[in-house]
Amino acid sequence: MKIILLSLLILSTSSSFAGNSQQPSSKKKEIDITKFCYYADKEYSIGAEMLQNGKKKKCVRKPQSDSSSKENSKKPLIWATVK
To answer: Which portions of the sequence form the region Disordered (predicted)?
Structure first.
């Protein structure tokens, strides 16, 4: 009886360790839309081109009509359709 209880204790302990090691990391990836475009959880730099949903897209600075944003590098990057 002691052997069975000891075996159950060992099995339950090892399965709890295995469960903890497979949990996703609580760290969240830092996103900076002024430096990268994002697609499918990957970073792409300005000028990158790819097909998205059958359309050619390019990573570019978002044009802004207001004159309050003087620094171009502070504007966000977006995926724009290439014609």
So the answer is: 54-83
The answer to whether residue 55 sits within a structural domain is yes
What's the pLDDT tens digit per position in 41-66? 999 999 999 999 999 999 999 987 65
Output the CA–CA distances (angstroms, integers) from residue 81 to 15, 18, 22, 55, in the order listed: 50, 46, 39, 7
Q: 54 is in which domain, residue-wise?
A: 24-65+72-83
pTM score of the predicted model: 0.58
Q: Strand locations in 17-54, DSSP E?
A: 37-39, 42-44, 49-52
**Is the Cβ–Cβ distance between 48 and 59 less than 8 Å?**
yes
